[in-house]
Amino acid sequence: MRVLVANIEDVLREAAARWTLVAYFLLSSIFILIFALGVNLDIVDGALAGAKLFGQDAQLNGRTIEIEKLVLGFESGFSAFLYLIGIFLAIFATAHLVPRLQEKGTIDLYLSRPMSRLKLLFSRYVAGMLLAAANLAYLIFSIWLIIIWKTHVVHPRILLSGAIILYVIATLLAFAFLVGVVTSSTAVSIMSTYAIFLFAAILSGHERLAAAVSKEWQATLIHGLYWLFPKTAQLGQAVVATVAGGRLGERFGDSVSLPVFGSTLAFGIVCFILAALVFQRKEF
Q1: How large a percentage of the chain has pLDDT more than 90?
Q2: How many structural domains comprise the chain?
Q3: pTM score
């Protein structure tokens, strides 16, 4: 356990030394600052009387809007943005962990330690998840506190959305590790992971896609690919549904289902197992 913890500390120190950690949190801070400065609300007796969004007056047509409904709708919409930006930053900041590990000199140093290759790879994965979790918590808590400061309304459901976002990050990072072990390329790992994210989102419309093809085997292939890849679009809807609740949450009710989460988890587990097997057999 001590060796495992030591390897995780090495990754965190490496991220700090190479400015990855600083850049990671700096980008998040920029998004938070833009949000804090760009949203100005005029609250009168618990209702929204006026608003400016990024310098532009919001058109209320003389109406006042209940601040509770406003905050709930705003947090729901912003949770979708957090889903995209959280995953984008996490993969961009952690996909290098395996390719950099396999660089000549670095891998020799790590393999000289009394530690199995599986534990070495797992320690890099845990370190990457810790980085992603810390940044995601920073993003969500900061946005949540800004909303409370500007509206005086507390909706803790936005904090629960972080668990689903981290779930998707864990799955995609396992795939990035697999590509990184095979190719030893950070660029390929990042591009492949983003491609999987987008391709899986397209497959969310597998019913319509299957209905558009003329061959039965083509429809079967589309359905099979849908269940093979992670459900990035459905889990994004699950994030919004978790924050929204009520009618909007019911609209995305099918997204929050065991098959969606289970098949995504299976994809991540298989990817990490394959990465571990390839890493065990690889010659350095």
Answers
A1: 33
A2: 1
A3: 0.85
